[in-house]
Specification:
Radius of gyration: 20 Å
Largest sheet: 7 strands, mixed
Order of helices and strands: EEEHHEEEEHHEHEHEEHEHEHEHE
Shape: globular
Number of helices: 10
CATH class of the largest domain: Alpha Beta
Number of domains: 2
Oligomer: single chain
Length: about 325
């Protein structure tokens, strides 16, 4: 089968399209024919091996798992003898973690993994990035920040994968939402349900005099110390981008003060909890309360170009890879 193989850490040039052996499902696994896979900022960070502390888990000199990619949408090709939850022909979406990645024609996944049937009102293209964007944002807003109806929520990086999902989720939970993005993305952010939009090229949201119960910094471009004055008395700053400063701020605010800085590594939560998050998102999709925003779709053969685009940091919603065209 065709698969992307990372030959080491570095620029997009380390990614090569190769012929590799097709995986075989174990007794409790399913073999999935991948139609579409997601590509995220996390994928590009893992490609470069930065921050370097991540190489303790990824591999010191080169990635231990040669094929990248986590999010997918496709069709079950075969099932192991002990599989009961899925059957051949099921259309599924989800993510794989710490196993050969989704930038390949086939992957194996455990039947009790982070996977569900694709909603009828969603295409493979829209389904593939759900775990990377919507599931992560649900974790941060609901479980980490404990979002409540009537709260004021600011989302920094509102036009990206996490941000576009975060706006819709915050609105679903009954919050007043302010999105921060560039001039070109303001209309899109408004269309997703943001009550207010701040153009970061013209205004610093920390200098408006407004305060928020939750500041969700999806891109890690700010910091707790910078945002502290924009938090309410018991406000919380959350970000999926863990740096040394955020780690120190988490430790310090856990002991002192009413304003908190928090982080969560969504992908390493127990599989049962991730499945619950995915199923909750699926219900919201089926009811029409949230949708995926797709910016660009690249063929598998253009994986380097896809990485170059994501590296620029200006994607609107999600970028996906078409592994095979759906019939």
């Amino acid at each position: 089968m065709k698969a992307i193989v990372s030959t080491g850490y570095g620029s997009p040039d380390v990614l090569e399209l190769k012929e590799v052996e097709r995986p075989k499902p174990g007794d409790k696994e399913v073999l999935i024919k991948v139609h579409v896979a997601s590509i995220t900022a996390a994928d590009t960070m893992m490609r470069t091996g930065t921050p370097y502390i991540g190489r303790l888990f990824l591999g010191l000199r080169k990635p231990r798992i040669a094929t990248p990619g986590t999010g997918f949408a496709g069709e079950i090709e075969a099932v192991g003898k002990d599989v009961t939850r899925f059957r051949v022909g099921d259309k599924v979406f989800g993510e794989v973690i710490f196993t050969p990645g989704t930038h390949a024609e086939y992957i194996c996944a455990p039947e009790d993994g982070v996977m569900a049937i694709v909603p009828d009102n969603m295409t493979f293209e829209e389904a593939a990035p759900v775990c990377d964007g919507a599931v992560t944002s649900l974790n941060f807003l609901k479980d980490v920040a404990n979002i409540q109806r009537g709260q004021r929520v600011l989302i920094n990086g509102a036009s990206g994968s996490l941000g576009t999902a975060g706006i819709q989720l915050a609105r679903h939970f009954g919050a007043e939402v302010t999105g921060v993005c560039s001039t070109t993305n303001m209309d899109m952010v408004k269309s997703l349900g943001a009550d207010k939009v701040i153009d970061y090229t013209k205004e610093d949201f920390t200098k408006t005099g407004l305060t928020y119960d939750i500041i969700y910094d999806t891109v890690g471009k700010s910091s707790f110390s910078h945002c502290k004055g924009s938090l309410t008395e018991k406000g919380v700053y959350v970000s999926p981008v863990l740096g040394f400063s955020l780690l120190l701020q988490m430790l310090w605010t856990s002991l002192v003060g009413s304003k908190k800085a928090k982080f969560s590594a969504t992908g390493i939560r127990p599989l049962s909890e991730l499945r619950d998050l995915l199923n909750e998102i699926k219900e919201l999709i089926e009811s029409g309360k949230i949708r995926s925003v797709i910016d660009r779709n690249y063929p598998l053969e253009e994986i380097r170009e896809a990485h170059k685009y994501v590296d620029k940091g200006h994607k609107k919603g999600n970028v996906v890879i078409t592994v095979r065209k759906s019939i």
